[in-house]
Design goal:
With about 200 residues, this protein is of the alpha/beta class. The protein has one domain: Spore Coat Polysaccharide Biosynthesis Protein SpsA, Chain A (Alpha-Beta Complex). It has nine helices and eight strands. The strands form two sheets. It has a six-stranded mixed β-sheet. It has a two-stranded antiparallel sheet with strand order 4-8. The longest helix is centred in the middle third of the chain and has 16 residues. The chain is globular. The N and C termini lie far apart (about 35 Å).
Length: about 200
């Protein structure tokens, strides 16, 4: 089966700077690409999961948290390759191809970045991450997006997992130059619109 590359953007209308990055996906990814908006992601959850999981998806207010939750649900059920939309894909995407074990990336500061993951369906590590996120959402945990649905959950899980995980290193030149690069200078992250600023003023649920 050809590995599907997928992403998430809450609205069907994608900003121009993100569309520019999407051109690199279409140029370098040799297989199918699917971008889910909120309604499409919700339909996926309704199709493949039970009502309680759908209700958890619905209670989340922040698009970033919905994206965090959805990527884990989608990876566990169908596998494939997830990338954040703010990524410029390079000419050598072979590093991203799904293997029998999970592939992730460790950022320069040591944490696992949940903006990329690649695996086959029903991966054991993804299941642990999913169970942790579900538990956090069920308890309405609201300390920080990073700790509820984001990179903290991934980092703790990966660092405590006894089995094999393939971990890319962001500091390696081949990753930055040939595989993908994270782009931070994007319009949706400016003027207090980023989730890290919104969580200071608004409820998660």
């Amino acid at each position: 089966m050809q590995p599907m590359l997928f992403g998430y953007w809450d609205s069907p209308k994608i900003p121009d700077d993100i569309l520019t990055l999407q051109e690199t996906w279409r140029k370098h990814w040799p297989y199918g690409i699917t971008i889910y908006d909120n309604d499409q992601a919700r339909d996926f959850v309704a199709k493949y999961y039970d009502q309680s999981t759908l209700e958890l998806y619905d209670i989340i207010r922040f698009p970033a948290m919905k994206s965090d939750f959805f990527r884990v649900l989608r990876l566990f059920k169908l596998g494939g390759v997830y990338l954040d939309m703010g990524v410029r894909l390079g000419p050598n995407p072979s590093y991203l191809m799904p293997r029998e074990y999970l592939t992730v990336m460790r950022k320069w500061h040591g944490a696992i970045w949940n903006g990329f993951a690649s695996c086959e369906p029903e991966n054991d590590v993804i299941k642990i991450i999913l169970d942790t996120v579900v538990e956090n959402l069920e308890s309405r945990k609201a300390v920080d997006v990073v700790r509820v649905t984001g990179p903290y959950v991934w980092t703790v899980t990966v660092d405590n997992y006894d089995g094999h995980i393939h971990i890319l290193d962001q500091r390696e030149d081949i990753i930055k130059n040939d595989v993908f690069k994270i782009i931070n200078d994007l319009e949706h992250k400016k003027d207090g619109r980023h989730w890290s600023e919104k969580q200071k003023k608004h409820s998660f649920y």
